[in-house]
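Continuing the batch. This is chain 6 of the set; chains 1 through 5 are on the previous pages. Same settings as before, nothing changed between runs. Recording input and output for traceability.
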Amino acid sequence: MNDNNLAEFILARAVESYKNGDMDTAQAQFLNLLNFDPKNPDALYFMSMIDHRFGRSEVAEHRANDLLLQKPTDGKALNLLGTILMSQGKTDEALPHFEKGIKYNEKDPVLRVNAAICNIGLGNPEASIESCRVAIDLSPDYANAYNILGNAYMGKSDMENAAVSFKQALEKNPDFHDARFNLGIALLSSDKVDEALTCFDAVLAHAPENINALTRKADIYTIQNKFEEAGTLYQQVITANNNFTPAHLGMGKLFEKLKKYDESLKHFRRTIELAPDNIEALTHTGVIFQKIGHLDAAAAAFNDVLSIDPDNAQAKFLLATVQDAPPPAKPDGDYVKRLFDEFANTFDSNLKKIEYDVPEKLAALAKQLIPGHDTLALDILDLGCGTGLSGMQFKSMSNTLKGVDLSPRMIDLARERNIYDELEVNDILNTLVRHQNDTDIVISADTFPYLGDLESVFLAVASALKDQGLFLFSVETHDSDNNENFILGQTARYSHSRQYIEDLAKRRGLDVLACDDTVIRKQGGADVNGLIVALRK
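Output for chain 6:
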C-alpha cells in the first residue's frame, strides 16, 4: 500500500468513527493521519471541529487557519473558522470570514445565517434580516434561517415579526426547541403571558432541567404573583448553576416585590458580580436603596448605570429623585410602562390599602358641574386609564368612553371590565393630538404624578375639548413655601403647585371651575395632599 492509499485508508476509518460518534477513536485516527501527513486538509478540518467541540478553541483556531492557508476560498473552512471565533466572543473577527465565504460560495445558506448571527451581536439587525432572507430564498426549508430571522427582529424590538419567524421555524421543524424557547421570549415581551408559558412548558417537557426555560417560567410566575412557585424554580436553577445570571436577577426582583430587601440585594449583588454591566440589576439596586433611605448608595447605583449608558433616561430620572438637582420634565416612558406592568395584578387591591378614591371624587365633581348628567351621552377620554377605575365612575354618562395607558397589562385589565368603547396602549400626548374639538370630558386620575411639565398636555387637552368641554384631573401638591412649578420627590412622583395649574389653565383659555384641596392617598400612613381640578374650555 503506497502512502496515498494509506492516507486515504486512515482518513476513511477516521471519518467513519466521527460519523458514528466515537470521538476518542476519531481523534486518535485523525492525529495519526496528521503525523503521517501534517497538511492533510480533511484531517485538519475534522480535528479542528473536534478541538472546538471539546473546548480547545485556540488549537481549533490554529488548525482552521492552517487549513485556510491551503484552501483560502473554501466555504466550509471559512465557516469553521468563523464559528470558532464566534464561540470565543470574537464576533467582529468572525464576520469577515463568513462574508468572504459568501463571496466565493454565494449559494451557501449556512454562511449567510452565521453572518446574520454576527450582525445581531454587532447591533446591526437590518443586515441580519437581509442575510436571513437570502438564506431562506436559497433554502426555503432551512429552519434555523427563520429562527435567526426571529432573533434579528427581536433585536429591533419587533416582537410581532419575531413571533411569526419563530413559528415558521417550527413549521419547518416541530422539534426545534431553541425556536420554541425564542417564541416564548417574543410572546412574553409582547405580554402574551399564557402563550409564552405554553412554549416554556413545551421546552421543559423535552428537557426538564433546561435552566433558561425554568427561569423564564419563574419570571412568569412572578408576574402572576405566584411567588412561592417562582421562588422554587429560581432556587432550582441557582442550585444547578450558581453562575446563571438571569436566575439571580429574577430572584432579586421576586424578593423586591415581597419587600424582602436584604434578600433582594443579595441576589442583585450576585448578578452584578457575574455581569458588572447589567443595567437592570444596577437600577433595581438603586431603587431598593432609595426605598430604604440609603440615598447616597442609590445615587451611586444610578451613576454606575450612567457610566455604562450615559444616555439612560431612566437612570437620569431616578438620580434626580435622590439628589438635589433640577428634575427632568417627565420620566422615561419605558420606566413608567415597566412600573405599571409590574404592579398591574395587584394595582386595585393596593389602592384600597392606601385609601385612594380620586375617581369617585372626579365623578362627584362632574355631576355637580353637569346639569342632567344622568340623561346625557358624552364623549369621554380617560388619560392614564389604568385598570379602568375612572371609567367605571364615568360610564353611565358616556356616549363613547375611550382609555389610553402606557402599560399593556393595565390595558388588558381595563378591557376585562368591558366598559370602554376603545382602549389604546400609547403615550397620552400621542392620543390627544388625534382629537380636535371632539371630546366632552377629558379625565386624568393620578396620572400627572408621573409627569412634571404639563404644558404640552394642557395645550393638547384644550385642542381636544369641544366648547364648554371639561378637563377633570388630580395632582399631588408640594409645600406652599416652595415656588417651583413642580418638584420630583424621593418617591419618584411629581407634585405641582396650585399656582402652576392655574397659570397653565389661563394660558390655554381654560376657566377654573374648581381647584379643591383633598387627600389623594396615604403614604406610609400619612396623608398625601393634592388637588381635584375642574377646568372648562
